[in-house]
Amino acid sequence: MSKVKTRFAPSPTGLLHIGGLRTAIYSYALAKKSGGKFVLRIEDTDQKRLVTGSVENLKNSLIKSGLKWDEYYVQTERAKQGIYLKEAKRLIESGNAFYCRCKPKNPKSEGYSNILRDPCRSKDYETGAIKLKVPDNEVLGYHDFIINKEIFWKTDLVADTTLLKSEEFSNLPTYHLAVVVDDHAMGITHVLRGHDWMPSTPIHLLVYKYLGYKRPEVGHLTDILDPDGGKLSKRKGSVSCEVMIGDGYLPEAILNYVILLGWAPKDNREIFSLGEFVKIFDPRGFQKSNPIFDRAKLDWFNGYYIRQKTDKELAKLFLEFLPKNVDYKTLLRITPLVKERLTKVSEIGTLAGFFFEKPKVKQKLLGKNASVHLKEAITILKKLREWNLDQINSVLTGLIKDKGFETGSFFMDLRVAITGSRVTPPINESIVILGKLKTLRRLKFVLQP
Ligand code: GLU
């Protein structure tokens, strides 16, 4: 297989969306599988859409997912070198583009309308914005290597599109010119992008042809759908990598889940690290139907990856979701008690917060025999010389037997009094870690009138 070079070309307009991450992963895998290069290119020429901090954020999200780029470019930097202006002028010289002097509707917006056949095309202006002169009665087509189909357009439906803005707007290129010039200049062999970019493709096909460039292979990915229908949106929760990590998802779980959004291996295997995925990735494995973003499945992956962590690794991750002053050694002892129960790392707060802070106990959570249960527990626990699991287990089971308590309700009262909650890690193990002093104090506190 000859070396493939791909690029991920985000516009810095916000956080890295799940769909963007998916494009990046597949592009990365396609290149790396062949021993080729993966390029990160920041497409920032549409100045009015820029969001401060996005570039750093996009880079961080890619790094967290393990997607390291081999080359890095920023289009506005390249624009300063006159790269796009030069190519746009070549198009003017060859008669395939023209200067347009129409003023943008809103002078601040930099936006030129792309009318089907712009009257300026026959005016022979010598300055202005540069627009593509789209021919009539031609058919444009290409073979999409993801969809695996020939796709055609009649040029009569393709508008005279702006390629380069006027001097007033620093001669910045639009996406349509910059993407073609750069994919060529950077030696990109395969372009992978979201389905919503499909309408731009005929414009690019013309620009490739008129500039005399060899066209890369182009492939469009299916849209990710919301379970309620329509394109994936924020309605049901976060869909950007950064917010999801902040919500307690692990980058490796997000990565694994995203890999399977519309692609499947031959053997239906589900668990992949990035390296394993690169090895088995085959672009013929793309499914035709649109994948649905299934949070329950993502949660399953997250739980799986949480359980793959060592206790040390997990305890470190917990720190982000707990008060600053928690004791790391205690946290390390708590970790094995909660590991099996977590779906998200952030749940550590609700599940184990009681270790670090005295909980508020709602009386209504206690059973009708709570005061007898707790009084007896205090008496017997107080006598314990050694505070360990064996001792605690044995005196409490002995107590239940002697007094004829109902096991379930006894332990529920103990649990609620100590933790404030009915759902917690195993209670006897928890009080070992909590220690004698705090355990007795909490039990007594609940009994106070
Ligand atoms: N800059 C476009 C984006 O923000 C990239 C489209 C492409 O990959 O050609 O998604």
Number of helices: 18
Rounded mean pLDDT is 94
Strand order, main sheet: write it out.
1-2-3
CATH architecture of the domain at 363-447: Orthogonal Bundle
What is the terminal separation in angstroms? 78 Å
Broad structural category: alpha/beta
Order of helices and strands: EHEHEHHEEEEEHEHEHHHHHHHHHHHH
- At the fold tier of CATH, the topology name of the domain at 363-447 is Arc Repressor Mutant, subunit A
Helix percentage range: 40-55%
Beta-strand residue fraction = 5-15%
Radius of gyration: 31 Å
Uncertain stretches? none
Bound molecules: glutamic acid
Quickly name the level 1 CATH class of the domain at 363-447: Mainly Alpha
Explain what the structure shows.
The protein has 449 residues and is an alpha/beta fold. Among the domains are: 310-352, no CATH class; 363-447, Arc Repressor Mutant, subunit A (Orthogonal Bundle). The protein is built from 18 helices and 10 strands. The chain has a 3-stranded parallel β-sheet. α11 packs across α12 and α14 runs antiparallel to α18. The longest helix is centred in the first third of the chain and has 16 residues, at 18-33. The radius of gyration is 31 Å and the shape is elongated. The model has no long low-confidence stretch (mean pLDDT 94). ATP binds at residue 234. Its main location: cytoplasm.
